[in-house]
Each structure stands twice: as C-alpha cells, then as structure tokens.
Write a structure and sequence with these properties.
Largest sheet: 8 strands, mixed
Number of domains: 4
Number of helices: 26
Helix content: 40-55%
Distance between the termini: 40 Å
Structural class: alpha+beta
Radius of gyration: 34 Å
Strand content: 15-25%
Amino acid sequence: MLRNYFKIAWRNLVRNKTFSAINILGLALGMTSSLLIGLWIQDELSVGRQYPNAPYLYRVMEHEIADGRIVTDEDTPGILADELKRALPEVVYAAGFSGPEEHVLSVGDKVARQTGHFVGADWFRMYGMTLLAGSPETALKAPNNLAISQKLAESYFGDAQTALGKSVRLDNQTNYQVTAVFENLPNNAPDQYDFLLNWNVFLKREPWLNVWENSGPGTRLQLRSDADPAKVDTKLRTFLKGRNKDIEAKYNIQLFLQPETEAYLYSNFKNGQRDGGRIEYVRLFSVVAAFLLLIASINFMNLATARSFRRAKEVGVRKVVGAGRASLIRQFMGEALLISTLALGVAVLLAELSVPLFNQLTDKQLILPLNQPYVWVLLTGLLVVTGGLAGSYPALFLSSLQPVRVLKGTLRFGAGAQSFRRGLVVFQFALSMLMIVGTVVVYRQLDYIQTKNLGYDRDNLIQISTNSSSLSTRYLTFKDELLRMPGIQAVTYSQTSPLGNSNTSDGASWAGKDPRVAIQFNNTAVGYDYIKTMNIKLVQGRDFSTAFGTDSTNYLINEAAAKRIGYKDPVGQPLTFWSKPGKIIGVMKDFHFNSLHKAIRPLIVRLQNENYYGIVLVRTKPGQTKQALASLETLYKKMNPASPFTYMFVDSGYEKLYKSETVVGTLANVFAGLAIFIACLGLFGLAAFTAEQRTKEIGVRKVLGASIASIVTLLSKDFLKLVLTAIVLATPLAWYVAQQWLQNFEYRITIEWWMFGLAGLVAVVIALLTVSYQSIRAALMNPTKSLRAE
C-alpha cells in the first residue's frame, strides 16, 4: 500500500512539473530561512550559557534612586566582591570586573595592542574556563600575574606550555609573569578579552574605588547550588545601608541579582524594571521564521485545492472500490510529506551554501552541524510540521468529496472553497506587507541615525587612545608638534570618547541647590580647543582659554545642565564640582555624547591640565586626510616607538554603535524580499491555473472582439482585489509593530502615511507583474487552439 501511495505521489509530481516546482521551491525557501534564523536564535540564546557553572552565576546590578529617576546599571563599588563573599554565606565565589582596556603587550620585538580586564582572583573558578596552562587557584593570585588567551600564547611564545612563567611587558612600563593560558573564547561569549590582570592592581591604580560611596566596575558572583537567589536578592537590596552613609541622605542605592544567562538578552531597564534588549530581536525573527514557513505552506494549500478538480475523479473511483476517508487522507498527507522531504533536501543544501554569507551579515560564526543528532531531530520536526501544515487542508478537502457527484460530472466547488483560497492569499500578502513596512521603517530609522546632526561634526575627526602610550605624559608636546604638520586643523584632549560618556557624579553644587537632593551629571575633562576641534556650538560664553589662568577651576555645561541647575543667566555664575569651586564660563548647545537610544543628559566639562589618560581628538583639514594620517603616524612613532600606531575615525565608530540595528535592517530586507517572492510564487501558480481553467472563455471573448488589454484586466483584477484587501488589513498591525520597535530609541522618526503607501505600491506592482505574465500569455493565445475541441 505504501509503495502504491509513493508511486501515485511521484507520478503526480512528474505530471505537474510547474506546480511541483513552485511548491518545492516555495517550501525550500521557507525552510532555508527558518534554518538560518534558527541557527542565529540558537546562538543568541546560548550566550552566557557556555560556562559549567552558568546556572549559579550572577551579575550584581544597581538601582540608583534619586532626583525622581531610577537609573539601573552594572556599576558597583570596587570593594563589593570581597565584602559579599565575607558577609553572605550563599556566595561561593565573587570577583570584580573592570571595563575593557587596551594595552600594548610586548615580548621582545613582538608588540601588539590587546584588550583585557582586571578581574578578581576567583574569576577562573567561577566561570570554569579551560586552562591550557596554570591553575584556577593561582592564576591571578599575585599583583604581577597575567593570564593570556591561547591565541596570544601562540602569537608570542608558540604554545601555551612555553608561555607559562614567561615575562610580558605592559605598555613598555611594567613586567608581568604569565601564570595561566586560557582557551580562546567562543565568538558568542558575553565578555571578549585577550588577557586578564589582578584586581588589586586595579584598586591600587584607582584609589577612589576603595570607598563605598563610589561605583564604577562590575561585580560577578557564584551562589551555592542550594542557595535561593530570591533570598539573596532581598539581602542585597539593603546591603549598602550603613556602608555608604555619606550619600544615604541624598539617594537610595539598591543592589539586585541578574542571572548571567539573562544578562545578554535582557540588558535594558526602564524606571527600575526590565525592559527587553536583544531578546526583542530573538522574538522578532522567531515570528519572521514562522511567517515565512506559513507563507510557503499556504502556497501548497492554495495550489493543491485549486487543482483539486483534477484529482476529483481519482477520489471518486477510489471511494467506489472501497477506499475509506482515512486512507485517502494518508495518501494526500503522504504526497505533502514527499514534497516537503524534497524541499527539505533543497533547503539543507541552500542553508549550507548560505551560511558563510549569513555569517558576514550577522557577524557570527554559525555552522550547520549536520553531524549532530539533535540537528536531524530538528530537521525531522521541521519536515513533519511543514508537511502536516501544508497537506492538512488539501487532504481533508479532497477526501470529503462525494463519489456520486464526482462520477456523474455534477461536482461544483462552492463559494466556501474559493473563499478559503482567497483568504489564504490575503493572509499571505498581509504578512508580506507587514514585513515590507517593517523594512521601510528600519531603513528610515537607520538613515535618520546616520544623518542626524549630533551637535558636533564627526566628519574628518580622528581619535587616538593615550592609555597605553607615553602620550598621557607628553600630550602637550604631541599637540604642539602635530599642529605644525601637514593636514592637521585642530587638536584637543578628552577624558572620554565622543561616542560614549558613562561618567556620572552627584558632586555638583551651586547657589540655591537643595543639599538633600542628589542630581547626577555626566562629566568629562577636556583640553584646550575642545569646542573648536569638535565644532560644538556655544550658546553663551566662551571656550577654555590659555588667556585665563583661572579656567583650571571653571566649567562648561550643556543646555540640559543649564536647565537642571536653573540659573536664568548661567555664564559667570558659581558652580562647584568635586569640592572645587569655580564659575560657568560657557553653555554648549546640547550634543549627543551617547547613542540615540539615550536622551541627552546634563553634562559638566572641566579643564584637564595633567595626567592626560583618555583620547586625543584630531580634526583633519578637508580633503587632506591622507596627509594628516601620515603626519599622525610619523609623530606618534617618533614619540612612542614601543607602541603600535592605531586610530579610529569617529564617524566609523559611530556607525558601530548601531551595529545591531544595521544587522536587523539587512536581515529585514532579505527576509521581506523572500516573503514577497514566496507569496508571488503561489500567486503565479494560481494565475496559471486560472488562465488554464478559462482558456475556452478567453477564446470565445477574443472571437467576439475582446482586446488583449480587457482580457488581461479580466484575469488580473480578482487577484489585485485580494492584494489590496491584504494591504488594508495589514496596515494597522504594521503601524503598531513599527511603533513598538521605535520605542527603543529616544530619538526616532515619525511613522508617516507614505511608508504604508510605498509598501502597498511595492506589493501591488510585484503582484501585478506576477499575474500579468500569465494573463498576457493567455490573452495572446490563438483562439482556434482553445476552441478546437468544441
């Protein structure tokens, strides 16, 4: 019996080559998209779960409640980790974790700039990382200890074992001993680094972190396997009470735990509540994968039911000779599974070929692991779901036909079957319309981000880090010499990059300020010519100047700070920051010093006149970037022969801030295109079937004088009505989804009517072109051929 079913299914496939090809290609594209999206989702969900102790690892987060706001971040006191380990019996291990830092690591003549962190001594025991050399207990025990990655060990020493015990010079200043070599981190590890240093060295370098009142680095901990995280959370909320008495009167700080397995996906907080993050994109593309499979399956259902009259007599004969409805359902479901199996084979091949390109688009290192049993389980599930979804309605519909009516030739398909097919087409194009609108909105938002006036000129602006070079002590000499070289227009210093300033403090006071209220200001230190180099507009006052010796205690503020402080005429008014009294000498027009996801916050800028650790900003003359870079490199190597010359264009760095959104935009374009293509495949098949069914009608109309245009209109208008209905139904949902996505940005576009008009026009034009091909072909047919049988 099964062999007979297979023969019938195969003969139907071969006999109807066009429709079979449309079904297989549509399902294959839907499956390919779902496979690729599934690989991406699996990779996203795995971030933070790679560690052996992942279920017991947590990040300590901080709610800072003051000035009517709740600010949530990972900044904690530098001495918190040791205190948690001492005070809470539920904590097995705890370690501080500094922000990423670039340093120059040199071994003999091998010199390279690497990225690393300062971490607590428990780090390797917590995260269970594989050590190729050394032990977790002693890896970072002493101040001169250095742990490096396998990649660095091979680059500097040849292999891990040879590296152990060797000396590495950091920033051409201090020698460290390699005490551990850890396995290269996977691409989807939440923290990426090449080396790790002892935590106590960091606290010695940054003494302000040794008091409870200051926060900066992160804190990670591991709980006992039998510990209740909720109870630990309760203890943490009041953990700082009594430890930071100086600031308790001004604001409240509450600590809480965030599981390591959730930190990557749920990174956004709003008013103290978790507010999504990368998980939104995971959900979005999960829906997209389901949509694409659904659209492809609808093609199968539509074409199968449309061509059902061809199988009606077969069903009638089989029922007369004793076939039951259950056996007919099995037969037609078997045919659907056969087509799905062929489509799955094509999909696996396409996915394998597409993975490298998909990795480029998403900056991932995905593979299709066909050697893993779980993959075949997933593929089987995909086959059963798709085959079952695509074949269910045709099987139920065909098996319900009455043999008497079929064999008498009186079978007529009622309005219900036609309405169902039309409904499926509407549903298909509504989903496609939704994805097209999403693509338009994402594109417009990304274009808005890239072209928005940030309040400073990011073109022709270069930044160079001083943290791992002697520029931090020789900046003034570097600036003076650089200004005399070709291609250089202006030079300044900034403690923070214009691409991101997370430094906040409540250390500002002024006349009339309520001492009981803590108000957080972003702050940074800059050199002379900051306004000139950045091309920031001054609303009032002036920039720092060497002509005024008192500027070392004076301040620049932005408009948001002026508004928060409340001075009617702020220039010349007193302002004290970090117990240093001075005056406001200028008000800068608000400019973006963080991403557009965040609102512009009040900013205080002070003058730096020593210890220039941070960023040198260089503005090149228009059209002379090449000469400017040559000048920079020449002088840099002259003053820092032991440090490799590296730089970054600020506009390029700005684009990287929105890498996630750019990836989403690219994928949205690809999958929206696939959605409309798959939907049009089905439309193409239905149009071909309709033209075939109405061949004699078209012949009669042509004999009676109908024009080609009227026949094309006749055959096309019904399909266009369905597409227009889909557009009308999809528009409200598309608006809602787009509006929700835009809420992630503090600065965003306004959704306008033309976006829906453009998406609808695209859908109509593509549908019209798809249908018109078959309509024109039918209209051009010689009527004598179509009427010959009469």
